[in-house]
């Protein structure tokens, strides 16, 4: 109803990959400038694509499998569960 009032296309009949793409797009728009987009990309196995240069880097594409994406597991978690091993960087 809100989308219709705003003049935005109806999404009630979208399923599968198009629905997934629309959800990611709407999340990116809703949370713009809050720093969530890279987590959304990596969590879903997608590359983070930056087509612009910033003050500290140029345009880039970072794959979800890039070792730099892995975060360290806290020591407390590893101590609490001896089956865990630290992520390799």
TrEMBL record:
Gene3D superfamilies: 1.25.40.390
Pfam families, per the entry: SusD_RagB (PF07980)
UniProt keyword Membrane, yes or no: yes
Membrane-spanning parts: none
Residue intervals of the RagB/SusD domain: 2-88
Keywords: Cell outer membrane, Membrane, Signal
Main location: membrane
Signal sequence annotation: none
Cellular localisation: Cell outer membrane
Membership in a protein family: Belongs to the SusD family.
Protein name per the record: RagB/SusD family nutrient uptake outer membrane protein
Native species: Chitinophaga caseinilytica
